[in-house]
Structure formats: structure tokens, C-alpha cells
Write a structure and sequence with these properties.
Rossmann fold, 9 helices, homodimer
């Protein structure tokens, strides 16, 4: 019996307080709630209920969707509170315990806001969310974590690579590759974890709307703040990624995977700052990429900018550009102001063929980018 | 310019406080410190320095290695503190802010202790840690996240699958499969993230000491506490995993990967409760598995237990057992008391051939399990 005791003690040392609190009627745990805990919870009005033990705190706040909610303490020091109905989609949030901004121990964390953040997904109508939800009835690809040595960084780099289901069986085929970038304050995990990329690709490929492709998710070297590296300007922010992608990542991918290795077989896209990086890199290297997308891209052109001077003059000859870049995709949510509509108009006026997608009712957030990806992938590699 | 302003505001809303504090001399960020932050830090004496902003807190504690360290507040509400020299290896830790037990916003989190825990690795001597460290000079396998539908659970299951480097090029080969389980309060991420499994396998395979193999990491349904499911006994804790593994996971793996599908091509091992599950499952199904390992296995036999009655009598005929199970591996650290030494002796006395490995100076922790895996994999599939 003493061995059992050793085991019990070893495990109890690790155990958080069991959630013995009663739960508000009509609520359920969120999809990201850690199974053993009951909090946070959601009700049918899309209100979120938070609960956290903080016996000696004097005030506890949940900070979500740009609003701070004061939680209330019970006699045991367990704090609870309810939000207003929240907009659908994924939200980062933080707890503030006597001024300390931390993640909620009740949830899975995810890299966002330059931190391991708490996150919660307020579900859309199932018909709306089906395209980014696991579908048992179709074949599923895989998301592979790969590491390779970076001579420029003198360290190993981690990338995530989506391979389609048929990659496992169609062993003589080669596949086109989409290089897909995250934005500021997130990293190479974003498209897989926050973006549900695998479900989107699985669905599009299974339906035949999109050709089977490889998707590579790299770290754009812009995940540590807003131009926050000492001595760096905004122009330099993430600029090192160009050399890494072209000289290290792409060669690694094309050596490791059954990838197509010509420009027709390479696309690049990104969200927010990753959209800016995509323009900076792909439009300066149209010898390498034939398909380009920016989702809420941080591409802010000064009034009076001459389109023909941008990106080493890639737009100077519209006919040549339109022949080379088969799809130039711009997308944005209707509730944000990242200028993709103006950019699209400016390019169209300059004779540059482009596709513009507007995501109804969404802001600078993952619902916009999932939809953009879902719109973009059927257009490329055709 | 106003678009730049929008961007700046959007990002600033997401930014944590920049770490402007000065750092103690002779310290460096830990390997798990998030790049933008400077805390936590380590010095050459293996002391850890914590730092966290908690302006209105009255006391802040760092809880690491079974000891609580009170941090000290500066005039701005930033709290810092230093531990004693810590033992090498990976440690979970938590911050307690006025009694609220949370992870440290300065670090990566990882699933352990039934929560997204902070973790820090106190580095061993490079010669000791080389086997679980990325080696630029050898080929690297991949760790694939796969999802499949579980009829018994009516949900998708997530597994991680290591494939060796040559899996990408040796397209006609089939590979043996090791099913490798985590312990209590951790989950299917453990062997990859905490265990550095890919580095261990890459090294062993590259050196030729171990045959190329697939490793499957599943959720053993024992990650939510200590028998904590309502109404569940210890015997039932994680018992549902047997049916899942045999009827769902293995068929999925053998359908999806170029896996060998006979008992000689299947091994099972696990750590702690996963070691107990390995014995429960593999020893009751020696028609399916020919290689078995328990690392600090939670296999606590009552004094006087008759070995020949265990696991449906698998040990009753030692000759037959020894012919069937080619390797029965037991491992444990010298600084823990999980009884693998007694179990090995008991089995040896009953005529059951087994391999016993003792990890010098390590306890019930990942250093023990990395070493056990490193000892185990060269023995199997030969």
C-alpha cells in the first residue's frame, strides 16, 4: 500500500483545486476549456462565464473583446462573472488578478498577443462554421512539425506543413506549395491552431474545388511586438524573413517534400503583417511565385503613391504582370479598416488584375482570415 | 497616415507591457522564455530569476520544484525573485498571485499538471543532453498531427505520429510502430514537447543503433486528474483506452501509414500511468504486441501477488512468454520509488526475461523518461 501512497502523493502535488462550484444553468464548457475544469462556460446567448480561484485577491477582471468585466468573489475566494453577449469567432482574453495580466488556468492557451494567451471560440451557426470544422466523412490531411537548421540564424527553425490526405498514397505525385504567413504578435502556429487550416483545406480538396496542395507555415520574424527589436524601424520589421524564406525554407521544403519547384507551383499569402510580407517578397520575386494573396494585409499606401514604382516596378507593365501573376487576391472584413478595398481599386485603375473579397460582418480577426483562405485556395494552381 | 495609426492602435491593444526592467548580471533567458520578454532567466548556478508585473498584488509566489519562493515588489509593481540552484531537467512551475495559481505570462506553456503549465528546462551538461537536442548534422524525422473520427467517443481524436526521415524517400518500405503513452495529468503532446522524442529518435536512427520506426502518441484518457471522473474507480481510470487503441487508433494508423501490421511490428510503452496501461493492454494482447516497456510504470503489486495470475495469466508459462515477448523493459530513476526494480526482480524470479534500466540521479520526471526511451528504442524491432 505504501507504493500507492507514494503515487497518490506524487499526483496530488500536481493537482489543481478540483472545480466543485456549481455551474450556472443553461451553460456549457467552451471548446477550449480544459476537460477537468468547468470554466469558462458559454450560454446560448453567447455570453461567457468565467470562474477562477483567487482567495486573497482584491479584484479580478476578465479582459475580452476590448471590454473589462469585474468578477465577483464568493465566500471561498472563487471569482465568477458573465460577459455581455459576444460576437461569434475566436477571441483572445486575459485575466487581471490584482493588476497582473495572465492567462486563465481553465483554458488551453495559444500563442497570440505576443504571449501564451487564453482563447475562446464563440461558435457560429453550424452552417457557417462547417468549412473550418472537422468533417468525419472526408479524407484528412496531416499537419507536420518539421525542424531544419538555419545557417543565417545559427539555430533550428520550426515550420508546420500541411500535406493533403492523398500525399500518403499517391506516392509519385508532386504538389504545389502555398507559403502562408501569420501576422504580428502571432507565430507559425497561428494558421493551424487559430485558423483551422487543415479543416479548410481538407474540405476544399475533398469537394474537388481546390487542387491538392502542400501548405507551409513559417515564422515571419514579426512575432515579438510592433517594431520592438532594439534599433529596428518599421521597414526593417520582419524584413529578415525574405532571405530566410527564399534561401533556407523553400530549399528545405523542396528537398524534403514532393513539391513542385517552379513558379507556377509556388504561391504566397499572409494575413495582416504577413500580407505585407507577402507583397514585399512575392511581388519582388515573381520569378519564384505565380499566385499571391494578402488577407487584411498591412499594406498602407500613402495618398499619391505611384503604383508603377512599387515593389521594384512590378506593376509598371500591367500586361506583363497580369500574364505572370495569375491570381492577385486581396481580402478584408467589412468591420475593419485595413485598406484592401482601396488597394484593390488603385490596382484595378492601374490595369492590374486582382480579386477582391469582402468578408461580411467580420473585423481584423481569424474569422476574416479563415474565410479569405477558403476563398483563395480554390483559385490557385489552376 | 491614418491607416498607420489604425494599425498601431490595433497592435498596441494586443501588446503586453514591454519588459524595460534591467536584468541581473550573469543571467540569460530560459529556452522557454517568450522571445519578447526577458523573464524568466537562468544563471550559471542553475538559479532561476522570475519577473512579473502585478501592480496591485500584495504577495506573489513562484512555485517550482516543490518549493515556494516569495517575490519582491519594486516601486512600479514589478515583482522579481530568485530560486535556489535547481536540479537539472524540466520543471513545471506556477505563479501564485494573491492566491490565484496561474501560469507565468513570460513563458511558453505546456500541458501538464492538468493545466497549461509554465515550464522551464535547467540544462544538463551538453554531453548529457546531446541525445535529446536538435542535431544539425543528421537527417530529421517529422511529428505529424493527425485527426480521425472515433465512433466510441463520437468525436475526433488527435494523435501525434513521428515518422523517420527516410519515410519521405523510401516509399516502398513499411515500418514498425511503437505506441508510446504519456502519464497522468499530461496528454498526447507530452512525449513530443516535454520528451523531445523526435530528437531522441532522429539520433538513434542516424547512428544506426535503432531501426527506423513510426511512433504514435495517443491520449490515454487519464489526463484529467487522479481517478477524478465522477464515479470512476482507480481500476477504471483510463481503462477505456484499451478499446480505443485496439479498435480505433491502431486500425487508423495501419490504414494511413506504411506500417507493419503484425505483432512483431508493434511495440507499446508508456510512462507512469501510461506504463500501467501498457502492461494492462499489451500483456493481455500479446497476439498484437511483441515488445513492451514501462518507464516508471505505476504498477504496484501487493505483497504476495502471484505473478502467474497477473494479466490473464500471461506469465504462467515463462517459456512461452519469453518466446513471445522479445523485450520486456522496465526502467526507473534512482530518486523515485515506483517499484520497477522490485517488479523486475519478481518477474526474473518467476522466470520472466526482462531488461531493467536504472536512471542515475533522476526522479519521477522527464529526464528519467527520455533516458528510458533512449535505452528502449535500440532494443526493439530486431
Amino acid at each position: 500500500m505504501k507504493y500507492f501512497l507514494t503515487l497518490i502523493l506524487a499526483v496530488l502535488a500536481c493537482l489543481p483545486l478540483a472545480a466543485q462550484e456549481s455551474f450556472p444553468a443553461g451553460t456549457r464548457p467552451a471548446s477550449t476549456t480544459i476537460s477537468m475544469k468547468g470554466w469558462p462556460r458559454i450560454d446560448n446567448e453567447n455570453r461567457v462565464y468565467f470562474g477562477i480561484s483567487a482567495p486573497e485577491a482584491t479584484h479580478v477582471i476578465a479582459d475580452i473583446c476590448n471590454k473589462k468585466y469585474e468578477l465577483q468573489r464568493d465566500e471561498k475566494g472563487f471569482w465568477t462573472g458573465r460577459t455581455d453577449p459576444l460576437v461569434v469567432g475566436e477571441h483572445y482574453y486575459f485575466m487581471e488578478i490584482d493588476g497582473a495580466r495572465v492567462s486563465d488556468p481553465g483554458t488551453e492557451t495559444i500563442y497570440g498577443c505576443n504571449a501564451m494567451a487564453s482563447w475562446i471560440e464563440i461558435p457560429e451557426d453550424p452552417a457557417e462554421s462547417a468549412y473550418y470544422t472537422f468533417n468525419p466523412d472526408i479524407p484528412h490531411g496531416q499537419v507536420r512539425e518539421c525542424r531544419f537548421w538555419s545557417p543565417s540564424g545559427q539555430k533550428s527553425r520550426r515550420i508546420f506543413v500541411y500535406t493533403p490526405a492523398e500525399y500518403e498514397t499517391n506516392l509519385t505525385a508532386t504538389y504545389p506549395v502555398l507559403y502562408l504567413q501569420h501576422g504580428m504578435a502571432e507565430d507559425e502556429r497561428g494558421w493551424h491552431q487559430q485558423g483551422h487550416l487543415a479543416h479548410i483545406l481538407d474540405g476544399q480538396i475533398a469537394s474537388g474545388k481546390c487542387v491538392p496542395m502542400i501548405v507551409v507555415m513559417e515564422n515571419g520574424e514579426c512575432d515579438y511586438g510592433f517594431g520592438a527589436k532594439p534599433g529596428e524601424t518599421m521597414d526593417q520589421f520582419g524584413a529578415a524573413f525574405e532571405g530566410i524564406l527564399l534561401n533556407e525554407t523553400i530549399p528545405y521544403v523542396e528537398k524534403t517534400f514532393r513539391a513542385r519547384t517552379n513558379r507556377e507551383g509556388r504561391a504566397m499569402a499572409g494575413l495582416s503583417w504577413g500580407g505585407k510580407q507577402t507583397f514585399d517578397i512575392a511581388l519582388r520575386h515573381t520569378d519564384r511565385f505565380a499566385w499571391v494573396g494578402a488577407f487584411s494585409g498591412a499594406i498602407f499606401l500613402m495618398p499619391g503613391t505611384k503604383v508603377e514604382t512599387l515593389y521594384d516596378g512590378v506593376f509598371a507593365n500591367p500586361e506583363q504582370f497580369n500574364a505572370q501573376v495569375h491570381v492577385l487576391f486581396l481580402g478584408m472584413g467589412t468591420e475593419e479598416n485595413f485598406g484592401a478595398d482601396r488597394l484593390s481599386k488603385m490596382l484595378t485603375e492601374a490595369g492590374i488584375r486582382n480579386v477582391y473579397y469582402s468578408s461580411p460582418g467580420t473585423a481584423h480577426e481569424w474569422l476574416t482570415w479563415r474565410r479569405c483562405l477558403n476563398q483563395f485556395v480554390p483559385l490557385i494552381f489552376r
